[in-house]
């Protein structure tokens, strides 16, 4: 004869009374009573599961209205969930009550109850401490089983909510408009205390990619801030698409991500261009900047940082490397979805931009640099360029592509290039605010220093005094000349026949005085990093570059 697995309401009431009487079994008497009844309780739970497993949650709740109270009280009892297979059976019972696609208010209420139950359990204080007290063994058993228990249901809930958000119907009830928008906000708030749980990631990404019918943001600001904070601290891993969506829909998160990148790079004081590029690329900001709205915000933050730090070389390096990585990401973008470059550099002179975007080529460097310089000169001397903002935009465009400045200084010394155009390019970079007459004077001074250095370029036996004389022979009146001269001297030491032999001694002399140290620091820092990575000279040259103040 088959065993009767039907649970009577009388049996149900008996065990509900017992569960109420026991509470969480904190007294010795209640603990003893629980232990005496555990075998019978497990048998009842097995029968109860067999009774409800073929019911939907609405029918089960209708037949046993206090089912939530019974299961909830038993789940909080450490002796019950620690006994034999009771935990597993309780899990099965809750599964019967949870609807992956709720169809009516009763099922919605059951799902809500289970979600609230799991959230309160995960947020419980005992989960924040691993300390073992006098009742530590009980706490440990309770924590161990409840964690397993609750994470199972968390996975189930996440799967259900993801299906709900992605599915054709909203909650299975074709809910639209204000109610659906409210639902998004409700789900996002539910996620806040659980953000760093790995099982929640699919739901986080689905929410970030989900847009309702309202014009305003539907996800709670607490949720967006918590996700961004966890991502920046590497406590969660999100797809690039989800991160981009987060920054597009929440400006404070994008601003914080950009400022965190600046702080991180300035604080690590790296001497490797590859490391700078790696950190920037890992931040996902260059890839996210494919969206013009993100690029414009990041670019404005970089401009502000550059102005606030008075052109700090570390900040300039970050901007230049970021620009290189952004250009690479833009070139790799699907052509069908690619925005024109004008969308990113709308305030820039487009022909000049296109010229700077070309990669330096040894065969055509001199000609192309001359083309850039002449175009820039025409632009700067245009009568319509009057305001500081206009001039700054032109200068900032040149500064973004700092590699061309390095190539210009190198070509002046290594190639048979016409010096005037390249010297003008460097003069503008170091003194963009100068009027034509002042810049002409800078050109005269820089030209004299350049000629003195070229006379020494092929000499194999040089002294520090030779270089000092080459500079001091010129009566320098323009501040930009000194910075330009330092740039030329640094390249001279690295690329001339005898320069690297006295490089360490000369740099020591330069950094020994406050003014000279400032001049070295004012070099495009990209120059220093690029030379470090080239490895063209001996160990003394490497030591030279490493001695440059950062």
Residues in helices, as a percent range: 55-70%
Q: What is the overall shape?
A: elongated
Contiguous helical run count: 29
First-last Cα distance = 87 Å
Class by SSE composition:
mainly alpha
Beta-strand segment tally:
0
> What is the rounded Rg?
35 Å
Instruction: Please state the average pLDDT score.
Output: 78
* Helix-strand pattern: HHHHHHHHHHHHHHHHHHHHHHHHHHHHH
Strand content: under 5%
Main sheet specs:
none
Uncertain segments: 125-145, 168-179, 514-550
GO biological process, one term: interstrand cross-link repair
Protein name: FANCC protein
Pfam families: Fanconi_C (PF02106)
Brief summary of the model shown:
Pfam families: Fanconi_C. The chain has 550 residues and is an all-alpha fold.
Structure description:
The chain is mainly α and 550 residues long. Among the domains are: 9-97, no CATH class; 250-346; 372-549, no CATH class. The protein contains 29 helices and no strands. α21 runs antiparallel to α22 (419-430) and α22 (419-430) crosses α23 (436-456). The longest helix has 31 residues, at 136-166. It is elongated, with a radius of gyration of 35 Å. This is FANCC protein. One of its GO terms (biological process) is nucleotide-excision repair. It holds the Pfam family Fanconi_C. It comes from Nothocercus nigrocapillus.
